[in-house]
Amino acid sequence: MKINIKQLVRSKRLSRIGALFLAFFISFFLVSCSVTDDEPISTEGESAANMVIKAENDRYFREDEWVRMLTLTISNLEGRLSLWSSIPATQRSEITLSDFILYTDFLSASIPGTIKSFSRATDDEMESILGHVTKTDATLTPSPQEATIWWIESETPDARILRFAIPVTLNEKGIPYFSKSWLWKQSTLYHYIVLYLDAVEMRNEPALISLIRQNTPLKSKSHGESIDRRASSLIDLYPRYVASREASYRIIEMVPGFAEVELQGILVNRREQRPHTVTFLESGGVISANEYFPQTLSTEDALLYYRGRPLFGTEQSSPRIEATRMISMLGIPLDIAILDKTDSDAMLFRVFWPGLTVEAVGTCHVPSLTFSGKVRQVSATYSQFKTGSGLQPGDSIYELYKRYPFIREHGYVISRGEVIKKTLSVQVETDYITRLTITIES
């Protein structure tokens, strides 16, 4: 169920970036791979000789007739004018012949090999596929509930069987028709993908920055710097994890507002690396790309400081909490809670100060305010507590992105170390850091 779009990418150079917001190619819906379990309707034997089809009821194409019309067109592009003329006017009133040609051109280029059959997707498949549309644009007309998904099955010259999902939008009477809004949403997203991947491959950082910033007003200087950092990191990381431009790109899924693209990984030690997957989301006219690249916590951000002083002293690898030092620095704790006292020499306890919580394992005697132990976790919510690089609660999220461009794709959790593992978890709300938590495992 994957589409090779490399040839399409090569043909669209970055000089066309300006056209991104003016005109787009009509794209298809979702693509998928694997043999269908439903009873397929065969298309073998169909050729230009029977390009003109007629609705069985003499009024409009049913869903299966609609998909057959598309498969005929994809397989016989020279007969498109006749096919267009045979579509009842009410089912094509929202689009032009030019739209139809662009759409079928794209489908034809995207479906390799010979089309063998088509079949209706199962209810579960439809719910999964159309669910992406609901999440990204709940106001789209027609709604996802007024569409169905059909699989087109093809066989490649090397005998691979591929399936591609095609949407069929329906009017209020359940009659198929071409929805201009659905085609436009997909074409916008598809054209952006082509330009984005082209910019990365050509190592054109200014073009990539322009694409990432599209339709997004900069909120601050750090916002712009975070975009610049992401673009430069993408250009730096792609050669390490993604095969060269001669390799294949495959669209795994595309629906209005959502697309997933798989890129071929580079060979490492004669073994192919796992494919690199990029998901694209469009919401409110803004398209964003999510890419998962390794993101390692820096040594300086694995420590917390209080007014310039290391919170737990100079011991960085295995920090300890000591009552005398902490009370002299932060004052009397708000509370001390013993969580597990099974072993008196290895109690699990927490100490609370305004804006700071420390969890440790060691000895603890609440009445005398004495405690000593190995720190397991420290969590800060006040801005006087900072990491070594200066990250602090209250900072803009873009300060985080400047340091870690792909932390969003990691769920705002990154780590370093193996023998002693330190993990930074960042809680964000409305574009601001609200909590920093460092967890230590040994």
Shape: elongated
Number of structural domains:
2
In helices, the fraction of residues equals: 25-40%
Please describe the biggest sheet, giving its number of strands, its sense, and whether it closes into a barrel: 8 strands, antiparallel
* Low-pLDDT regions: 1-37
SS-based structural class? alpha+beta
Name the average pLDDT.
Answer: 86
Quaternary organization: single chain
What portion of the residues fall into strands of 2 or more residues?
25-35%
Alpha plus pi helix count:
10
- The termini sit apart by 44 Å
Q: Tell me how many strands there are.
A: 23
Provide the gyration radius in Å: 28 Å
Blueprint (SSEs and pairs):
Layout: E1 3-4, H1 6-10, E2 30-33, E3 41-42, H2 63-75, H3 80-86, H4 97-110, E4 114-120, H5 123-136, E5 147-155, E6 161-169, H6 180-201, H7 205-213, H8 221-241, E7 249-255, E8 258-263, E9 267-268, E10 271-272, E11 276-283, E12 286-291, E13 304-306, E14 309-310, E15 320-322, H9 323-330, E16 335-340, E17 347-353, E18 356-365, E19 370-380, E20 385-387, H10 397-403, E21 413-416, E22 421-429, E23 432-441
Antiparallel strand pairs: 1-7, 2-6, 3-4, 4-5, 5-6, 7-8, 8-11, 9-10, 11-12, 13-14, 13-20, 15-19, 16-17, 17-18, 18-19, 19-23, 21-22, 22-23
